[in-house]
Write a structure and sequence with these properties.
The protein has one domain. About 70% of the residues lie in helices and about 0% in strands. Helix 2 runs antiparallel to helix 3 and helix 3 packs antiparallel against helix 4.
């Protein structure tokens, strides 16, 4: 898998996403006074971190024979950009219409999990 969407690249993007999630969570806890902005940042960071970890799980799935797991990171990380990113933007004062993007990110998360469940069927196949 030497193309741009290799396991190595997915894992690198997931690590960057994890870094951002921790940084945003810390900022929410220590750098923001507005309770609504804090909550938006915390929610975005929580879901972002959860789905960067899910991307790492995809690498493990692929390692144990669930080759279809290679499709899930695109959904997970795109979901992070749209879901978490829209919440971060709202916390920074973006117009409320930006919130219309959030559910699209949520649907991408759900799709990623469905793909991962489908991929799990490739682990230890029955003879």
């Amino acid at each position: 898998m030497s193309h741009v969407w290799s396991r190595r690249n997915w894992m690198t993007l997931a690590a960057v996403g994890g870094f951002i999630a921790v940084a945003v969570g810390a900022f929410a806890a220590h750098g923001v006074a507005d309770p609504r902005a804090q909550e938006l940042l915390r929610t975005g960071a929580t879901y972002g971190f959860m789905h960067t970890m899910a991307t790492f799980a995809c690498a493990t799935f692929m390692q144990v024979g669930a080759r279809r797991a290679r499709f899930a990171p695109a959904f997970f990380l795109s979901g992070v950009v749209l879901f978490s990113g829209s919440l971060y933007a709202l916390a920074a004062g973006a117009p409320r219409i930006v919130g219309a993007i959030t559910p699209v990110g949520g649907l991408l998360f759900l799709t990623g999990w469905a793909v991962l469940a489908w991929a799990a069927r490739g682990v230890d196949p029955q003879p």
